[in-house]
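Q: what sequence does this backbone want?
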């Protein structure tokens, strides 16, 4: 499928880049996105990929930092039934070295019930959330790469109009790269081209 060809996308004015499928469109062309975020979505599958730059949280330990951010995200989104399905150990990313300080990476995968935008709890979808925390300690920054994959679409959700209600069609069946692969690719290809951004 041509729209599933992955290529390098410039982020934050080309100062960062990441590789992911072309089917993910830049949401800033449709609505306003905060300056510290880059948001991409595939509306036909209700899947999204978000890159976020935050000030480093020194009080959060490296081990389990992705899980901490995942739980923070769940409470921020007023999610119900949030569970952590898996978490990685701490990995070093020598490709993201600044002042001889390699980035530290942890990942977590969770599942939660969340509503779109301003919709209420009665319209919650069950979503699988993949989150990577890339800790760029040399520049005091926590980078979050978050991928959302709907598992079950609520008939009352606005997503039901586009993708249909019920159990989401598996990516492979739709001829798309599965979201866990999209996430892995986006995280492992993440590069900083201009450290002056921070």
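A:
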């Amino acid at each position: 499928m041509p729209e599933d060809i992955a290529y390098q996308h410039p982020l934050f004015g080309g100062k960062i880049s990441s590789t992911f499928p072309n089917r993910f469109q830049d949401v800033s062309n449709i609505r306003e996105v905060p300056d510290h975020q880059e948001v991409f979505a595939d509306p036909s599958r209700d899947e999204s990929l978000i890159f976020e730059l935050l000030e480093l949280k020194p009080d959060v330990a490296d081990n389990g930092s992705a899980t901490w951010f995942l739980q923070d995200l769940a409470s921020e989104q007023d999610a119900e039934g949030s569970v952590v399905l898996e978490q990685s150990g701490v990995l070093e990313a020598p490709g993201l070295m600044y002042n001889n300080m390699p980035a530290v990476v942890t990942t977590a995968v969770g599942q939660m019930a969340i509503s779109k935008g301003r919709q209420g709890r009665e319209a919650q979808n069950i979503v699988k959330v993949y989150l990577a925390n890339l800790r760029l300690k040399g520049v005091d920054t926590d980078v979050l790469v978050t991928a959302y994959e709907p598992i079950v679409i609520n008939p009352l959700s606005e997503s039901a109009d586009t993708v249909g209600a019920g159990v989401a069609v598996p990516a492979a069946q739709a001829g798309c790269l599965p979201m866990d692969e999209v996430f892995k690719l986006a995280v492992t290809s993440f590069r900083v081209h201009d450290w002056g951004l921070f």
